[in-house]
Amino acid sequence: MPNIRHTPVAPTRAQPMAAGDSIDAHRHDDHQIVYASRGVLAVTTDAGTWVAPATRAIWVPAGTVHAHRAHGRLELHLMGIAAHEDPLGLDTPTVVTVGPLLRELLLAHTRAPRERGPEGERLRAVLLDQVRAAPQWPVHLPAPSDPRLAAVCAALWADPADRRGLAELGADAGASERTLSRLFRADLGMTFPQWRTQLRLYHALQLLADDTPVTIVAHRCGWSSTSAFIDVFRRAFGHTPGAHGRLR
Q1: Pairing state of beta strands 5-6 and 22-27?
Q2: How many CB atoms lie within 10 A of CB 193?
């Protein structure tokens, strides 16, 4: 990522972002929790893209070069955590579930970050305890390094509703189905169906952030039926696509 900005202390604040807005590549010496209480947030590094609706937050470890992008009108909440104070012990980004209590703690802490009295410190301590206990449940799209795999992934990024299998996609990419299947596991750490499902969920979140009807989202993202889409979405996020808009 070119033009990397270095901000030693990760900011703690709340800020709005318009649909399509982005924050260019940058890094902090601190860890950071990035949460969108409204809209859908994508955080991208050289290793891939992590996606979070309002029921998820993204943990960005200290030193990680990352960029943000808003899908839908975003209410962004940023919380910096000193590098020596590490509630998760992770050196790669991850997505954690945000329940009602963690949500309210994040909103309160980022809207009044300068309150560092005893009450503010107690709130922060409870917040970090909640982060430690939060289940990790990501929508993560790892970035391919092999050029043949990158060609297949690029084709599906361009059209997530593309229903071709690996054999057909491989014919255009110059690789066999067996080779591509091996590369998905070795390069991306998941099977082709798993990666494609993650991609479709990412695009679904983007469309839902723009208030696209559920039936249209299912069609544009390649599910065989609206009911199949609803089932996959519910298993991934714990609620239906129809309920998703009410949670934003």
Answers
A1: parallel
A2: 11
pTM of the complete model: 0.86
CA distance 78 to 36: 9
Q: Is 198 exposed, middle or buried (0-12, 13-18, 19+ CB in 10 A)?
A: buried
pLDDT tens, residue by residue, 113-156: 665 678 888 888 999 999 999 988 767 899 999 999 999 999 99
Domains of the chain in start order, with CATH, are 5-140 (2.60.120.810), 144-247 (1.10.10.60)
In the chain, what is the straight-line distance between the N-terminal and C-terminal CA atoms, in Å? Answer: 30
CB neighbour list of residue 86: distance below 8 Å, 6 or more residues apart: 31
Between CA 58 and CA 89, with CA 117 as vertex, the angle to 5 degrees is 30
Q: What does the alpha-carbon distance between residue 244 and residue 248 come to, in Å, rounded to a whole number?
A: 7
* Beta pairing class for 13-17 and 56-60: unpaired
Q: What is the DSSP string of 137-155?
A: --EEEEPP-SHHHHHHHHH
- For residue 188, the SS3 value is helix
User: Which residues, 6 or more positions from 144, have their beta carbon under 8 angstroms from its beta carbon?
Assistant: 150, 152, 153, 183, 187, 188
